[in-house]
Structure formats: structure tokens, C-alpha cells
Amino acid sequence: MNDVSTLRLYLLRAMYLLIAAGLATTVWPQIVSPPDLVAGPRSVIRALLGALAVMSLLGLRYPLQMLPLLLFELLWKVIWVAASAVPMWLGPGLDAYASETLFACLMGVVLVPIVIPWGFVVECYVRSPGGPWSSRTKAQSHESAA
Fold first, then answer.
1. What is the pLDDT of residues 110-121, one digit of tens each?
2. How many Cα atoms occupy the beta-carbon half-sphere of 18 within 13 Å?
């Protein structure tokens, strides 16, 4: 397994803190005191981002174990930029909401890949074997065969 430097661990923690603090100041006030009591798309987005903020706090303690959270953060932003922002920008143009969201997404698209230890990600999620599909171990299957 690749060793991850202390500097990289601190950068990961800083990214988790940035996500948690940013969402704590922008999303959590709307969760605690919602502007409307309608269960619509905005309430779902607030809940999702609120959960992301809380889970990011775990990244402060477990920076490597919470890497899937940063990968999720990177992927949803890349998908939104490619599937929504770019077509809007090329077509009718970005409205105020899309411009603000694009700026926030581009910050994540630029910063998250810088702090992710890609060697560790490849070693851990690409090269290492996946988890078992059942609870039976090799020892159990050999005993039952005998």
C-alpha cells in the first residue's frame, strides 16, 4: 500500500474542513430554519449537502477512510459542470443561480484533485481485490467440501 505523506494527510483534513465549514455556513442555517416548508428539490439538496457536511467532519479524524466522500464530491461537481453548466453557457447563458453554482463547483473541481492521494486511490480501489460477495471464507468452503 502506498504511504501517504503527513503533508497530504493535512491537506486532506483541510479539504474536509473547508467542505464542512462552507456547508455549515451556507446550508445548515437553511436546514435548521428552512425558508419554506415545502418538501421539494431544494429541501432534498439541502439534506444531501447537510449530510455531506457532517460526513466531512469524520474526514478530519479518518482522512484516508473518508476518501470516497471526496471522490463523490469531485464526481458530482464534474457531472454537473459537464451536463448542466457547459450546455447552459454555450446556449442561452448562465443565470445567477448557475453562475454561483458553477463558481462553487469549479473550486471543488480544482482543489479536490490536488489534495487526493491518487497513488493511494489506485492502489486501494483499483489494484487491490474487492470485498467478498458473501460471508463465507475460503476456510469455511473447504470444511464444507470435506
1. 999 999 999 999
2. 14
